[in-house]
Amino acid sequence: MEFFTESAKVFTNPDDLFYIKTEGSDKNGIISLLFYSLMLGLVIGIATGDIVLTGILLVVFLIIPLLCKLIHSIFTFIFARILGGSGSFFNTFNLMSYSSVLNVLLIIGIALATLGFAVIIPLMFLVFLWKMVIEMV
Questions:
Q1: Residue 115, φ and ψ in degrees, nearest 5
Q2: Contact 70, 47 (CB under 8 A)
Q3: d(CA 57, CA 43)
Q4: Is 66 within 8 Å of 33 (Cβ atoms)?
Q5: How confident is residue 125, by pLDDT bands cut at 50, 70 and 90?
Q6: What is the pLDDT of residue 68?
Q7: Is 107:40 a contact under the CB 8 Å cutoff?
Q8: Which end of the chain is more exposed for a tag (fewer CB within 10 A), N or C?
Q9: pTM
């Protein structure tokens, strides 16, 4: 239950969540990256209606976001160290992984797109902007 409460805080109050998470060490950010990426891959796969494609998408949506976030965290950690930061790489990776919680909006958009509503393009743009804000925080 705490996992979903923290996920909601990414939407409602990310500053407080990140402040609390920098003082402790947990893995909920990384777990949210894996969980929400897999859910997005599952919803896209179900929307296509092909079970083989769904399996391929699950593997792709597990590996690609993890590698991209890892590379992004490495660069962020290096720049933070250059600018005088003192945190650990694991905390950087964990906190940056919380931006994947916003995939919930994409999941809703894809579900609505299967019903014929054309909301996915503006929703993708908003999710992209909000992810940038979350990662900067």
A1: -85, -5
A2: no
A3: 10
A4: yes
A5: confident
A6: 93
A7: yes
A8: N
A9: 0.80
- Given a contact cutoff of 8 angstroms between Cβ atoms, the answer to whether 52 and 75 are in contact is no
Report pLDDT digits (tens) over 76-118: 999 989 998 888 898 888 888 888 888 888 888 887 777 766 6
Tell me how far apart the alpha carbons of residues 5 and 101 are, in angstroms, rounded to a whole number: 11
With the CA atoms of 77, 81, 86 and 87 taken in that order, what torsion angle do they form, in degrees rounded to the nearest 10? 0
What is the sign of the dihedral through the CA atoms of 93, 99, 101 and 106? negative
The per-residue DSSP string of the chain comes to -HHHHHHHHHHH-HHHHHHHHHHS--SHHHHHHHHHHHHHHHHHHHHHT-HHHHHHHHHHHHHHHHHHHHHHHHHHHHHHHHTT----HHHHHHHHHGGGGGHHHHHHHHHHHHTT---HHHHHHHHHHHHHHHHH-
How far apart CA 49 and CA 27 sit, in angstroms, is: 33
